[in-house]
Automatic annotation (TrEMBL):
<dbReference type="InterPro" id="IPR012341">
    <property type="entry name" value="6hp_glycosidase-like_sf"/>
</dbReference>
<dbReference type="InterPro" id="IPR037018">
    <property type="entry name" value="GH65_N"/>
</dbReference>
<keyword id="KW-0808">Transferase</keyword>
<dbReference type="InterPro" id="IPR008928">
    <property type="entry name" value="6-hairpin_glycosidase_sf"/>
</dbReference>
<dbReference type="GO" id="GO:0005975">
    <property type="term" value="P:carbohydrate metabolic process"/>
</dbReference>
<dbReference type="InterPro" id="IPR011013">
    <property type="entry name" value="Gal_mutarotase_sf_dom"/>
</dbReference>
<dbReference type="GO" id="GO:0030246">
    <property type="term" value="F:carbohydrate binding"/>
</dbReference>
<dbReference type="Pfam" id="PF06165">
    <property type="entry name" value="GH94_b-supersand"/>
</dbReference>
<feature type="domain" description="Glycosyl hydrolase 94 catalytic">
    <location>
        <begin position="315"/>
        <end position="716"/>
    </location>
</feature>
<dbReference type="GO" id="GO:0016757">
    <property type="term" value="F:glycosyltransferase activity"/>
</dbReference>
<feature type="domain" description="Glycosyl hydrolase 94 supersandwich">
    <location>
        <begin position="17"/>
        <end position="296"/>
    </location>
</feature>
<dbReference type="InterPro" id="IPR033432">
    <property type="entry name" value="GH94_catalytic"/>
</dbReference>
<keyword id="KW-0328">Glycosyltransferase</keyword>
<dbReference type="InterPro" id="IPR052047">
    <property type="entry name" value="GH94_Enzymes"/>
</dbReference>
<protein>
    <submittedName>
        <fullName>Uncharacterized protein</fullName>
    </submittedName>
</protein>
<dbReference type="Pfam" id="PF17167">
    <property type="entry name" value="Glyco_hydro_94"/>
</dbReference>
<dbReference type="InterPro" id="IPR010383">
    <property type="entry name" value="Glyco_hydrolase_94_b-supersand"/>
</dbReference>
Amino acid sequence: MEKEGVSQYGYFDTERNEYVITRPDTPTPWINHLGESERFSGVISNTAGGYTFHLDPANKRITRYRYAAIPEDRPGRYFYLKDCEDNAAWSTTWQPMVNFKNDFSYECRHGFGYTKISYAYKDIASENVYFAPIGKDFELWRITVKNNSQRPRKLKLFQYSEWCIWNMIKDHYNAQSIANEARSCFKPEINTFYHYPYADPAVSMKDSEFFAWVAFFACSCNPDSVSLRRDRFIGRYRDESNPIAVEKGVCDGFYAGGGYHVAATQYNLDLGPNEERAFFFAMGSYDAMGDERADVAPLLTAGGFDAEFAKLKKYWKTYTDKFACATPNRGMDVFLNGWHQYNLIMDLWKTVNYSYTGWGGGSVGYRNRAQKTIALATIDPRLAKSAMDQLIRIQYECGDAPGGYSPMTGAKANAGGFSDVPIYLIYAVTAYVQETGDMGLLTTEYPFFEGSTATLYEHLTRIIDWIWSRRGPHGLPIIGIADWNDAINLNGKGETQMVACQFVLACRQLVDMAKFLKRDNDAVKFSGLAEKMSAIVNEVCWDGEWYLRAFQLDGTPVGSHKNTYGKIFLNAQNWAIIAGIVQGERLEQCLASVRKHLFIKCGLKLCAPAYPGYDEKIGPIGSMVPGLKENGAVFCHAHAWGVIATAMTRKGDLAMEYYNAALPYYQDPDVSTTEPYTFCQTYASDEHPEYGLGRLHWHSGTIPWTYIASTQYILGIKPQFSGLLIDPCIPKEWKGYTVKREYRGTIYSIEVSNPDGVSSGVKSVIVDGKKTGNNMVVHDKAKKAVTVQVVLG
């Protein structure tokens, strides 16, 4: 076993693609996800806290989770053991019956789609395994208990899970209602609990009817006693750390409708020396009681459980086989050889579910889903197209798009009006077509939200027309509700330099599409619009050493040296570079200003200095504490754009320095507090006392854009319409690296050598033994494997 990224809390087991947590008291709950699709998902921490949902985390939450609670990370998927000799009791996952004496052993292994937690105490060892089978609407649990002593042991095993009333918001804040709605039962003939409270009409997608969904909890063997009510299992003035049922050694079996319901079981467990026993459980949701039996019953056995677990591992291997690299940067290798791909998939499906933040809003952000699709296309074009199809179909006829939507109910998060939102659809389609070569998709008819249809190409051109038609006095796009930065709205009527730059890039991408479709007039039009907007940005937004970020309605600049706060914004510089607007001396000034004013140890700050308080003319950015989130934190999403922009200027050492600064692998977990194996949205900046503190893990545009930054702009393997462009930008000290990358069904084995110690510039490319005239490797669909040798210089 090879240990990588060893810290005081754990390490990466690169052989098994697991992060191993060696002590339970992590700075925050370090979580993982169960399930591989957006139909069913579970969130689980390193001490088994967490919850489960089906289809929608806001409207069809299966189990309860209490946010901002003390103790934190409660409840979850819990097991308790009790020694009948001395009545000592403990949790098999450390929480909730916390042991601070260090007289136990503990290990948690978070793998791709599963979590294993091992615990040993008083010569009794246990292992909990949790995962969701591929394509199923439930999760499986297994606990194995082993007597490591040389004498017989008499134990009692308890299992505990707490139901949610479906609607997460209602479950938290409408106690007078939910206390009278819960319904559940236990059917001993099939060892199964059912929970079936009615869902609200709005949630059930019906106009006036309440709808009875059903959740189940199935056991592999007959419990000796059960509990269905939380108050009867936990007891009065107690919590999960000292339940009365465990103290008494038995569940009371009481049932009455209403109150707070649980699925809790108790088993008498007699084990001889070195004897072990396994118990299996399943939890999920089906349409009616009993519908789950055919799927679930065969898996509540050792053979069924192991077979499904093997399928899960095989499923995730298909992603790790699509891209692999060997570079001098160990953190990059750990992420790009599995963890980054895993983050991408989980972020796509779980984007409706903000894990432990309490924002289980059930809405997929349009811009978020589109940006994830850009990176996802490179590892799973089928999933990318499925996600993209949803976005296309809810676009409005005018070209705008809603800010978000619910995959389950179809409800929109808002009616539109974010100036940047629709533009990411152009980026997503471009990325997908460059990856797959499916240019025919552009002429496919798709409906708009209102019902009329048009080709995908026309869907995209309407976005350009929409943005161009909504410009302010300086000729820049009107910001609307906001642009990418939701905390800057300028009363909805200011102008945004960032969207102007994004517009330029989108136009240039459409030029290539128009040329392929032989729409020469369109190509001229979009090229002209790109040049006009570039000229406007250069004319009105240059502030002397950097670009302005926006204009208020009265013409007051935002992001100017004349401002007291928010003098410089990162994205104004990022996107001027990415869109190809800034050149020459201004380009060097932009880079120098970013370095001087925005770079700190954990990345590039979003703006500086932070705003001390709320300014209604700018927006809610100042309502956030200085140094946090949009108000001057390292916003890792924008930081990734900064890495791309820097690599585009051929500064490999600087691009790698920026990449490493925000990579979770290199953070001190006692400072960041977040998991070393997933990205977070922000790090607190040097303007905040908790400098380096990470927030909002797992779900952020950081994940796709950092993947693009590392694979396409640093390692330089860029999909194009005709093939792969090899264009690295690496540290000068690198002697070389290798990449294996699947592209259009062909495996490309790429070896890059850097004998002259340069950052960029391709001297030669040899494809299958034949030297090419440039660094474009044209795809040959007849080949299933291609070897590429690249020399920089």
